[in-house]
Task: structure prediction
Amino acid sequence: MAHTYPAERPLAGAGRGVSYMRHFLVCLVATCAVAALTVSVAAAKNGNGTVCVLHAKLAAKNETTGSTSTAKGHTLIKVRTDGRIEFKTQINNRNHETFIAGHIHQAPVGVAGPIVVPLFVSPAPATNARHIKQSGIATPNAGTTGAALCANPSAYYVNYHTTVFMGGAIRGQLH
Result:
């Protein structure tokens, strides 16, 4: 007579266990979807929603001015659903160059263009700190919107100006 080992016998209620697990997973996915929608709707209602996030890597090699600045940096731009343009810039200024202004300009790579969004301007004091950190809410010039930046970021660049390179010391195209 053949002997049946316990591992060869079907488990009692095995079909129900799979059904409960499937039901649990469906409920979990549905709960996560509802939570995600609630968060995104709340962000849009309070104006903190983000339309786009843009970056620019700032370096002298990107400038059209012949800059030999040794500073390098990065600017992060967030365009909010209410139209606000928030920015954060960090510059590693190892030779303590004196930075006097920063802007978003409209022009493609290799071309100088007009200022469309002032970022760091007077009356903010010039700085020659080794590590420059700036942030704030920028107000675009007439005719420019955050939506325009989001629609075609490569048509804009960020640059920062020094006392030596008044036309621009470091620059980076938005992407």
